[in-house]
Every structure is written in structure tokens, then in C-alpha cells.
Amino acid sequence: MASENVYVEHCKGIHGLDKVILREIRGYSAEVYLFGGQVTSWKNDKREELLFLSNKAIFQPPKAIRGGIPICFPQFGNIDSLEKHGFARNRLWSVDPDPPPCSTHSSTRAFVDLILRHSEEELKIWPHRFELRLRVALTPAGDLLLTSRIRNTNTDGKSFTFTFAYHTYFFVTDISEVRVEGLETLDYLDNLHNRERFTEQGDAITFESEVDKIFLSTPTKIAILDHERKRTFVLRKDGLPDAVVWNPWDKKAKAMADFGDEEYKQMLCVEAACVENPITLKPGEEWKGRQEISVVPSSYCSGHLDPRRVTFTG
Questions:
Q1: Closest Cα partner for 163 from 83, 273, 80, 88?
Q2: 3-class DSSP state of 13
Q3: Coil, strand, or helix at residue 19?
Q4: Which 3 state secondary structure label does DSSP give 121?
Q5: Which residue, 19, 46, 71, 138, has fewest beta-carbon neighbours within 10 Å?
Q6: From the CB of residue 228, how many other CB atoms can be counted at a distance below 10 Å?
């Protein structure tokens, strides 16, 4: 029997930041930085990177890391007075030294539980006590599973309200050869038009200019087809009714200091989110949301995926 450290390794990453490497015996791996509680790498059994991380990403707190899967909490976007996408993605999380077993996939050993709690600094800008737990797991089949639990730990009887997103950056070969299926005919809020509401008209989403849309009441399964590489990402989600689709395209890419001018061609954000209807928790209440990402050959389209891999296993 392989020892536990085959599956979970605690080490130092860029600029000495603490990170955790998850490995599966067949060669799958994922990396998670404690800064931001952020997955920055997910590789298949051929050691190919599946997530996009900018070559210009700044691994220097408090600047958020550009790429991977940032956690947006307690807000998505910049509607309120809080910093854009909230503070969870640029705070230091801690590791739970004694996590409960992985019940979703009983054979999964490559997982880590991270915790973020309120601090005196946060209470000044968002006056609520909370506990945010994030489990990052790599299944024996190489799927990447993120599960978040948010609990209201206020002692003053106050409820709080939040929005949330897994800001997932997928690595794609050529954005002009990518299509997203599962969101067609749905309503969306367009961030490029003051969140005005529209209905998606195409039979799939394709890309030839900047896109920044929040799709509403979305299905539990979305497919991102990378034609050039003949593979499809399948994103399955639970507790997260919305889905954000974003690519900055050329002008906005050049305006971002931590993003290469041409990198928009190799990335696409498709994000499991809860944005339109914020979640309210009373003291002691808990919310749970999760997403699971797998990769299948693109000979499958989203309507003909292997049904054994389409549903959550927990």
C-alpha cells in the first residue's frame, strides 16, 4: 500500500508561498496555494496542464493570483464597496489538520481541506463572522472536485448575504476553436452592457470578441469543447445555479498588468456561480456548493456524454 504522502504533499511554491500538491497513482495531479485557497494547476495522466495560469501571474500577496480557480466570496463582481470578487481570493487560508474522510468518493485519498475565517481586518470591511471550508479533491479517475461550505458564525444574531463563484480558468488551445454547450437559449446578464438581461440565441457559445456573461438558472452540466485538442471539459455543479462565461479578448488583455497580451487566446473562464439571487444565512446556518470537472474525448458532445460520468457520485 502506498503511503499517504504519495497523495498529499505540503511544500513551498513560488516566492516561498505554502502550497499543497495532490497526486494520484496514475499520474494526475493538482496544486493548491494556501494564499487564496486557490487551485493553480490540474494535470492529466500525460502531465498536460488543464487550467490556465498567466505567465505574468503575481505570486505576491495581497495581489490575487491570475489563473487557476480563484474563490469569489463574499461577492462576485464589484457591485458593493468590497474589493472586486471579495476578499477570499487574496487572504491566507489554513489547512485543517484533521479533516473528515472523503465521503463523496470513498476511494479518494488525494484531498486537502482549507479553512478561512473572519479576521479583525475583515470585520472592518464586512462585519460578519463566518467560516468558509474548501475541500479540493483529486479522484482516482483524475477528476477535480471542489466543495465549499460557508457557515454564519455571528454571535449577535445577524444574518448575512453573499454571492459566490469558482472563477475557473480553463486552458484551451485556441479560443476561436472552442465552443460551450449547455447554455444555449438561456437568459443571461451582460456585464458589457450594465448587466442588462438578454437571451442566448446560438446553438452553442463560440468566441470572436470579448465575452462577459452571467447565465441564469443553468443546468447542472456544462461542456467546454476544445476542438483543436479533441477534448471536452465537463463541468458538473451543485448549489450554484448560475454560470459565468468570460474572455477579455485583446484590448482588455493588454490593459491587465498580470496577463499577457496574447494569452486570451489560450484561456476561457466558465464559472459555477451564485450571483443573481444572493444567499442569506442566519446564525448557525450553512450553505454548500460544489463543482466537479472531468475531461473526456471530444468525440462526445455534451448531449452524448457517458452517463456514468455525467452525474455527481455523492
A1: 273
A2: coil
A3: strand
A4: helix
A5: 46
A6: 13
Annotated catalytic sites, by residue? Answer: 167, 271
Confidence (pLDDT) at 278: 95
pLDDT tens by residue, 51-88 = 999 999 999 999 999 999 999 999 998 766 677 788 99
**45 vs 26: CA distance, rounded Å:** 6
User: Class of the 8-297 domain?
Assistant: mainly beta
E strand residue ranges, 8-56: 8-12, 18-23, 29-33, 38-43
Q: How far apart are CA 72 and CA 188, in angstroms?
A: 19
**Which of 96, 146, 97, 99 minimizes the C-alpha distance to 116?**
96
d(CA 227, CA 152): 43
The pLDDT tens digits of the residues spanning 234-280 come to: 999 999 999 999 999 999 999 999 999 999 999 999 999 999 999 99
Intra-chain end-to-end CA distance of the chain, in Å = 25
The residue type of 130 is F
Question: Beta strands of 139-195 (E only): which ranges?
Answer: 144-152, 160-166, 169-171, 178-181, 187-190
Instruction: Label residue 4 exposed, middle or buried (CB < 10 Å: 0-12, 13-18, 19+).
Output: exposed
What residues does each domain of the chain span? 8-297
The reply to whether the predicted model has a pTM over 0.70 is yes
